[in-house]
Amino acid sequence: MIFSLPIKLLLAVVFGGLIGLERESSQSKDNIKHVGSVGGIRTYSLIALLGALSGLILDQNLPNIFLLIAGTMCALVVVYYFVGTSITGRTGLTTEISAVFTFLIGFFLVTNILSTQLTIAIFVMILLILSIKIKTQKFALGISHKEVESFISYAIIALVILPFLPNKAFFITDIPGINALLDSANLSLGIFAKMEILNPYRLWFIVALITGIDVIGYILGRLMSKKQSLVIASTAAGVVSSTSAIQSLAVKSHANSKLDRLVGAALFANAASMTQVFLLVTPLNAKLTFYLFPTIIIIGLASLLTGVYFLTRKSTNKGDSKHEAKKEEKIFSLMPALKFAVLLIVVRVVTKTALAFFGQSGFLISSMIGAFAGLDAILINLAELAGKAITFKSALLTFAAVNATNMLAKTIYSFMQGKKEFGYKILMGLGVVAISGFIGYFLK
Q: What is the mean pLDDT of the segment spanning 115-142?
């Protein structure tokens, strides 16, 4: 995207004016228009234009003049801040920092330091951040000390522990002394020698993902309605791992009487998981993606429609709202996430054992068993074999079968981690999704 210099100058003025409009409207709503405020539309337009002109001056190899203009601009902002603080007692820096960013927007528009597209993106982000002032203030005022501790705890889980865990597979042979013990008993591991037991990084990633769904859902819930926040957070998590998203919702069912809402969100997460098929299969076998496309659409629509059904139906559950609110004060629970991660390890070991015994001769059976641990490895294996070792028709049947098995696994996890009522509703919804996969196969 190439703009001429006059257009760039015009954009600088327009962008500055829009930021000034937001600042002026924000101050009028809060009734805080006062001496020391940086200004409104005209002031910010001039600031952006000044930034653009300073960029032109720098391009003309006049760095001293540029530094003089930039230094004067910063000094004026500082003076405005101290004048406003002394007169009104305000201590916020939002308006002054927005003025500095407005100057930089104008500067970046006429220089080649950042692309025009990136500069426009930065402008949009600045405008978005400034526009959510009221919502963020309400959110911050309502946060308790326990909630702050929960956010810090999650930061430790996701940002302190996770990055430092080794992202490598550990096998049975990595257990200290196992080889000597087996040799003394004249035993051999055989096919189990290279069987992965766990990957610490991936294991803790599941824990961080499950707890993260709760944290993101909580934050969204403070900014919008609970139903909207639950669906959005679950759908986003479903792109990464719908199994983890559904498990998180199952845990919530113990403290939430509105089970239909949770089931609806779970089905939306399941629909979002269909994007993984495109991401994993297409780079390896585009023809298989084309062949699976109608079935993928049918499965996705079945998930969405059943999700809408549960979200819109009138709930018949009766629960103690006070008791529910009390339980939901805790933003996330670490123990259920750890239990689920351990459960996945056990399931993966069992399924890999079955795969080792069945091998390619029992491809369909071994794939269905493997689907209890997830679809990622199955989809990659399917993409590598379709059109070569197996026909596309067989690949489609395998996909429908492993999808049904995966729905069964999610249902079992829901019964194990959530209320029985939640499990039955999930069984109903995911049962429809499982059947839809075979409908796609027979229509092909």
A: 74
